[in-house]
Design a protein that fits this description.
nine-stranded mixed sheet; homodimer; alpha+beta; 11 helices; L-amino peptidase D-ALA esterase/amidase; globular; 401 residues; six-stranded mixed sheet
């Protein structure tokens, strides 16, 4: 497996475009992605009980058929909390895309991100979809990745190559994140494409598992949005023997490549977290189970007190231990050890004899690794998060107005 | 029931003192509270799995006997994550207090708040306890309330008078809060005293219920500390007929007065939340059950996105609805209504036709009421929280160093 520069159009048979249609003032706000042939589709959606219209509509679309040709995404407006009119608008985006690309309406997915509770400017969007259909290209992946951004400060995309039973295949993807990122999908959109041939059920299962170990392991502010989705299209143009079961030759390589791609996109989202000045990796080992390790890592990653301490480059290990204490898992505080990078700040039996200077040197870096060793079992998990800064408050105090 | 200026020494037979013993640089850091006679004691403690030494020791003390004469509290150092030596230090504080006041060691409780993971300066504390014992007085309640503060910016105390079956009784209390406040007890200390006569079991039950409806309904940053406790002493000197069951005449009045006192202290804690510029009351009505309403109100109160929007005086109702959507309860978004003060910002079926100007006038006030009507059942709950400001980050990025 190798990383490549590239994105969603890196695999064979995918084209894309991204342009400004007028939802935002000047930035790109509309993206199209198209597969030359029907592609098997897997998707995971927000667990929020107030799903946005495109989430509801896409679930309906995929219930009808898991074979998709095209995806249309707008940014700047989430089409969330928009009731019946929002549903009509989401369906109208699908119709306009189907018309522009001459595909069937059942073959189109729609996605939106941005402000909640405002109606989409449908005339601008319809015109934008027509224009975007006219400028699809192999090179359009980056423009599409740019068009799905909201408060993101950089484009998030990557491609990965691997070999399935001797046949080279490519996976590529783009994502947007920024605020409201939390496990269980947060205003986080991720779209992946591959030319591998894989049956829809297996693709769905593989995506779900990879999402659980990537996008569901990152957090910016603990909030979960109305619009999150992670979608993958597999058009089979690489020509590998169709993967239909986990025992098939090449499946392991595919699953690894997909997880790698998703983890890398996840980390990009965290690095670009609203107001983030530091990237923080939290690893918990020695929990009774992996599930317990996930709970502990999540509790640390979501603690405002831990995140502000890291912002202040303060080796406040007590807040980390207190956060684990709030995770609702069984563990022995006296057995627990905490490391900042390689510096042990807490040893068993509350032994503390670290140099503040050494710990601070770790915390002064842009990337901070925190390791919590519970020394109580085989369970482990890694979470990725960022610090909590004054800029986060600045951005979110005045997002809408 | 009537509120009175006063605090923990307002009821008959309680004296207190507060002084600087040297844990902090110059501010008061040691408090004593004493009852002239043994008092029935009720207590609730942090749910954090890493309880500080005084929490562990107090649980042991109360398991031996629920009758207590004295309480010693230090601020500036939490005596948390301090292992065996921390336990010894907590017990030594009890011994020193017992000696200074000539009471039995089983009659003393201890409490600490402040930095985690550092050993107490026991010599200073022992001297401080002796001095504090020498200056106990009826007027010392305020000094004690001052001595338990950490980043608090004002003293939190109040007294309440009521009549139990014709006998006037007084309840008084002091609290400290500031950061790390969340339901299930957070770095929050609350000590109450009353001259009412009430059996320990009934007192415990009544305290627990009142805490669930007050201190467990407030949140500053969603974190729960290692040291939280709420303790009440009832010395019976008012001379009412001992309350032993909920059917006893006067019990309802006592329970109401206690809940009133705890709610008022809770609100003071929120008003003084770290960096708080606004006090926010979140009421959820129309949930399927009270438990669901609590979940919904808590999700809104803990959402960084909601709290930053309020900080920015932005009528971002979409974030409120999204937070309810994350609460894990069943409800119909299309039936939901949201009010800022009296201004309906979201009506059923996502009808939005409010004036931004009107909503902003509500949000510009120091106290903001948010009402979420789910219109789906009889359940209701109220939570109190504050906004999330840049000052919160400032305070918490550099707390320890």
């Amino acid at each position: 497996m190798q990383e490549r520069t590239g994105g969603i159009t890196s695999p064979r048979g995918f084209r894309a475009s991204g342009l400004h249609c007028g939802i935002k003032k000047t930035k790109k706000d509309l993206a199209l992605v198209v597969s030359d042939v029907p592609a098997a589709c897997g998707a995971t959606f927000t667990q929020n009980r107030v799903p946005a219209a495109p989430v509801v509509v896409d679930r309906e679309q995929l219930a009808r058929s898991p074979f998709i040709r095209a995806l249309v995404v707008n940014s700047g407006n989430a089409n969330a909390c928009t009731g019946d009119r929002g549903m009509e608008d989401a369906r109208a985006m699908i119709s306009a895309t189907a018309r522009a690309l001459r595909v069937h309406e059942s073959e189109v997915l729609v996605s939106s991100t941005g402000v909640i509770g405002q109606f989409l400017p449908m005339q601008k969007i319809a015109q934008g979809i027509a224009s975007a259909g006219d400028c699809l290209s192999k090179e359009g992946g980056e423009a599409a990745a740019e068009a799905i951004m909201t408060t993101d400060t950089f484009v998030k995309q990557l491609a990965v190559e691997t070999t399935l039973n001797g046949v080279p295949v490519t996976l590529g993807g783009m994502a947007k994140g920024s605020g409201m990122i939390a496990p269980n999908m947060a205003t986080m959109l991720a779209f992946m494409a591959t030319d591998a041939a894989i049956a829809p059920e297996l693709l769905q299962k593989t995506l779900k598992r990879a999402v659980d170990r990537s996008f569901n392991r990152i957090t910016v502010d603990g909030d979960t949005s109305t619009n999150d989705m992670a979608v993958i299209f597999a058009n089979g143009l690489a020509g590998n023997l169709m993967l239909t079961g986990e025992a098939d030759p090449g499946f392991t390589e595919f699953a690894e490549a997909l997880e790698h791609l998703l983890v890398r996109l996840s980390k990009m989202i965290v690095v670009d977290g609203e107001g983030a000045t530091k990237f923080v990796e939290i690893t918990v080992v020695g929990a009774a189970s992996d599930a317990d390790a996930v709970k502990a890592a999540k509790a640390v990653a979501n603690s405002n007190l831990v995140k502000t301490a890291i912002n202040g480059e303060d080796a406040n290990w007590g807040r980390i231990l207190a956060a684990v204490g709030n995770a609702g898992i069984d563990f022995k505080p006296t057995e627990t050890e905490i490391y900042f990078g390689d510096v042990p700040v807490l040893r068993r039996n509350y032994r503390i004899d670290f140099s503040e200077e050494e710990a601070r040197r770790v915390l002064q870096k842009k990337e901070v690794a925190i390791r919590v060793q519970l020394n109580g079992g085989p369970g482990s998990a890694t979470f990725w998060t960022c610090d909590l800064s004054k800029e986060y408050v600045e951005i979110n105090a005045n997002y809408r107005t």
